[in-house]
């Protein structure tokens, strides 16, 4: 409360007293840029691991459609990336190969 009172001296009241507003992270764009090679590498491992009940063709279809902006598949790709990163970290405890 004290911080808000001090802030009112320097910041307009309408900025401090407005409702909270969420924001999104541009993961889909990052996947097309900075994360593209990491994503491609990890998807390759996932395809080769035969761990998922979907085919490598399905995975690359989702990847390609996202990259050429036919579909926004960032959520699916994020889940696959996180799965492979988890497998990488825990492969000594699970048998996925």
Overview of the structural elements:
The termini are far apart. The protein has 6 helices and no strands. The chain has helices at 2-8, 13-16, 27-32, 36-49, 56-67, 74-90. Helix content is 62%, strand content 0%. Helix 4 (36-49) runs antiparallel to helix 5 (56-67) and helix 4 (36-49) crosses helix 6. The model has no long low-confidence stretch (mean pLDDT 90). It has 97 residues and is mainly α. It has one domain (25-97).
Brief overview, please?
With 97 residues, this protein is mostly helical. It has helices at residues 2-8, 13-16, 27-32, 36-49, 56-67, 74-90. Helix 4 packs antiparallel against helix 5 (56-67) and helix 4 (36-49) packs across helix 6 (74-90).
Low-confidence stretches: none
Kindly state the mean pLDDT as a whole number? 90
Number of strands: 0
- Quote the distance from N terminus to C terminus: 55 Å
Briefly note the structural class of the backbone: mainly alpha
Would you spell out the secondary-structure blueprint of this structure?
Blueprint lengths: L1 H7 L4 H4 L10 H6 L3 H14 L6 H12 L6 H17 L7
Q: Main attributes?
A:
97 residues; 6 helices
């Amino acid at each position: 409360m004290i911080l808000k009172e001090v802030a009112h001296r320097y910041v307009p009241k309408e900025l401090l007293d407005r409702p909270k507003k969420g924001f999104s992270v541009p993961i889909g764009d990052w996947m097309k840029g900075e994360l593209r090679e990491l994503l491609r590498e990890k998807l390759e491992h996932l395809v080769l691991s035969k761990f998922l009940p979907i085919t490598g063709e399905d995975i690359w279809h989702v990847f390609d459609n996202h990259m050429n902006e036919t579909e926004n598949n960032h959520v699916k790709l994020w889940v696959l990336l996180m799965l492979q990163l988890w497998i990488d970290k825990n492969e000594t405890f699970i048998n996925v190969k």
